[in-house]
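A reminder from the course coordinator: this example appears on the midterm review sheet, so study it carefully.

Given structure:
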């Protein structure tokens, strides 16, 4: 017999997928129920404002658990960055060769932005659930953003000749991202451990608090992504390719990351490092410097990557290990 307790247990076990479905469902409800449309028009633009607040909060609670001895750079950190830069360069080459067709170029640009995006700051939250290293991934994320400062102003003008992006502008954008969403919550977490250890101890006893905050963020991101896809002016086979190709890009990056990580006994962290992307920055970069229509791809990528994350977490909690 199905009980409320069993239903809640199933929803908790599939928290990421539940959050995505909830976000999409709420968007569809407010978008298509005429009586709710005015409320949707008012509340919708306010939702993205929660994202940085939620991200800051979940990272603070996650960093309260960080092991500083794990924050040293590792060999695989730089191997993954070399792979990421090389694949991005390959995509630039493909765009230069096949970019005469506007539709083909649009799809390739969508794939390119999914490869070149830096690692998501919230990667530590999912990695913690899977058994990865918070400290190692924090260091990797900082390195990934530093590398992004170099490869974005290098590659973007090759993709779009009109892309008006300089090294300084890219550096300032990413430095702000690192400072606000990584350095500040990390510093506050370390100060909290030093001066208010009882609060930190109590917070750490609720081991999933950061994860559930991320689930709220994911619901909002999923709703916004669905809205962007629904309002996209791209149609037909091009739209389908912009939605489907990010799935293959996602699987390729997770697979490569895990394969590299196995050589250093850190497949979980390395897989998340290459596979879990900061698609918010990806969408912004696409709108600002590339063809805005290609922004559908990084929007779709966030859904695919969290389906992968959700499946991994479900499998780990059910079987006590990862199969991939």
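Designed residues:
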């Amino acid at each position: 017999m199905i009980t409320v307790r069993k239903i809640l247990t199933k929803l908790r076990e599939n928290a990421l997928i539940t959050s995505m479905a909830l976000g999409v469902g709420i968007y569809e409800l407010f978008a298509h129920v005429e009586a709710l449309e005015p409320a949707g028009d008012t509340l919708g633009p306010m939702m993205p404002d929660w994202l940085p607040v939620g991200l800051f909060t979940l990272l603070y609670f996650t960093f309260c658990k960080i092991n500083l001895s794990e924050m040293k750079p590792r060999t695989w950190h730089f191997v993954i960055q070399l792979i990421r830069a090389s694949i991005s360069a390959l995509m630039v080459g493909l765009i230069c060769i096949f970019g005469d067709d506007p539709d083909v170029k649009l799809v390739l640009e969508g794939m390119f932005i999914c490869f070149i995006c830096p690692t998501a700051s919230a990667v530590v939250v999912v990695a913690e659930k899977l058994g990865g290293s918070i400290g190692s991934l924090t260091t990797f994320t900082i390195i990934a953003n530093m590398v992004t400062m170099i490869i974005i102003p290098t590659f973007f003008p090759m993709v779009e000749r009109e892309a008006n992006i300089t090294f300084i502008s890219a550096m300032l954008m990413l430095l702000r991202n690192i400072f606000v969403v990584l350095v500040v919550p990390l510093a506050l977490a370390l100060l909290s451990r030093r001066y208010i250890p009882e609060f930190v101890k109590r917070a750490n006893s609720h081991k999933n608090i950061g994860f559930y905050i991320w689930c709220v963020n994911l619901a909002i991101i999923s709703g916004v992504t669905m809205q962007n896809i629904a309002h996209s002016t791209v149609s037909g086979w091009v739209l389908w390719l912009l939605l489907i190709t990010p799935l293959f890009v996602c699987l390729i990056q997770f697979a490569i990351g895990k394969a590299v990580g196995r050589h250093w006994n850190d497949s979980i962290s390395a897989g998340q490092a290459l596979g879990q992307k900061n698609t918010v920055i990806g969408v912004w970069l696409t709108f600002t410097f590339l063809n805005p229509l290609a922004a559908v791809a990084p929007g779709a990528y966030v859904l695919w990557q969290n389906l992968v994350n959700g499946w991994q977490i479900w499998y780990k909690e059910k079987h006590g290990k990862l199969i991939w």
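DSSP finds 15 helices and no strands in the chain. Residues 47-318 form a domain with the Na+/H+ antiporter like fold fold (CATH 1.20.1530.20).
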